[in-house]
């Protein structure tokens, strides 16, 4: 699986958009980008995933660059409950496992 | 949809005890399940991957005789920590996936404390 690089921490004001970047410059053509988050002392929660096109669901939007070497997770209106560690993972469908890096700790401030 | 139930949520037991943790996919069939361990202020560490009806594949450094994994059905996997010792105290998290390209869905974790 391709390695990902994320900033260790970010702050965001409540009500503003949170934009979390992920670099995956060695991504292969068949590897998907997945985003998860983990709120303190809970199991991770799936947020969104995509292959090439931008994706949007009720939680977030995923913007993948044309060369697929980086992506951005957008939480359009961050709330205090969005404070969590956000993990970006790239994985091919045939690969058995997902390896978690250190993620980005997002702190939403009032 | 895509709910994974894990229990117990917390276990406190004496050293030498064996502890079983269950992971169930409630509304989908999980062809693959994963077990992770997480120490305080660290990321998730994959322990093993299991496919229904097959033996689990353990990550390097994880003792398969100590951490017994069974994935006997498409909705249930169990992790048994045998003869647990204080160093096995950790947060254990399972996840399940239906098809290869689908995302993993996680349980709420089990906090294991060995006295």
The unreliable regions of chain A are none
Number of helices of chain B: 0
Structure classification of chain A = mainly beta
Structural class of chain B: mainly beta
Describe the strand arrangement of the main beta sheet of chain A, using strand numbers: 1-9-8-3-4
How would you sum up this structure, described in words?
- The complex is a heterodimer of chains A (110) and B (115).
- By secondary structure, chain A is mainly beta.
- Chain A contains no helices and nine strands.
- Chain B starts with a strand and ends with a strand.
- Chains A and B meet through β3 and β4 of A and β4, β5, β9 and β10 of B.
Descriptive keywords:
heterodimer, A: 110 residues, mainly beta, five-stranded mixed beta sheet, B: 115 residues, four-stranded antiparallel beta sheet
Summarize the topology.
The complex is a heterodimer of chains A (110) and B (115).
Chain A: E1 9-13, E2 18-23, E3 32-38, E4 45-50, E5 55-56, E6 61-64, E7 70-75, E8 84-91, E9 104-109
Parallel strand pairs in A: 1-9
Antiparallel strand pairs in A: 2-7, 3-4, 3-8, 5-6, 6-7, 8-9
Chain B: E1 4-7, E2 10-13, E3 19-25, E4 32-38, E5 45-51, E6 57-58, E7 67-73, E8 76-81, E9 90-97, E10 105-106, E11 110-114
């Amino acid at each position: 699986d391709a390695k990902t690089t994320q900033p260790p921490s970010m702050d965001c004001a409540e009500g503003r958009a949170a934009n979390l970047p992920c670099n995956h410059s060695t991504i292969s053509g068949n590897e998907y980008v997945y985003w998860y988050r983990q709120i303190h002392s809970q199991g991770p929660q799936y947020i969104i995933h995509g292959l090439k096109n931008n994706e949007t669901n009720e939680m977030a939007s995923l913007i993948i660059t044309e060369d697929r070497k980086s992506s951005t997770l957008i939480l359009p209106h961050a709330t205090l409950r969005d404070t969590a560690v956000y993990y970006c993972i790239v994985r091919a469908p045939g690969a058995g496992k997902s390896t978690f890096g250190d993620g980005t700790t997002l702190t939403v401030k009032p | 949809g895509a709910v994974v139930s894990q229990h117990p949520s917390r276990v406190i037991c004496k050293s030498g005890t064996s502890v079983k943790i269950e992971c169930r996919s409630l509304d989908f069939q999980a062809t693959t399940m994963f077990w992770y361990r997480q120490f305080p202020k660290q990321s998730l560490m994959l322990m093993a991957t299991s496919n229904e009806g097959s033996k689990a594949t353990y990550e390097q450094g994880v003792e398969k005789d100590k951490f017994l994994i069974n994935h006997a059905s498409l909705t249930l996997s169990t992790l048994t920590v045998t003869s647990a010792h204080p160093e096995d105290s950790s947060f254990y998290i399972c996840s399940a996936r239906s098809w290869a390209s689908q995302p993993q869905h996680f349980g709420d974790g089990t906090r294991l404390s060995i006295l």
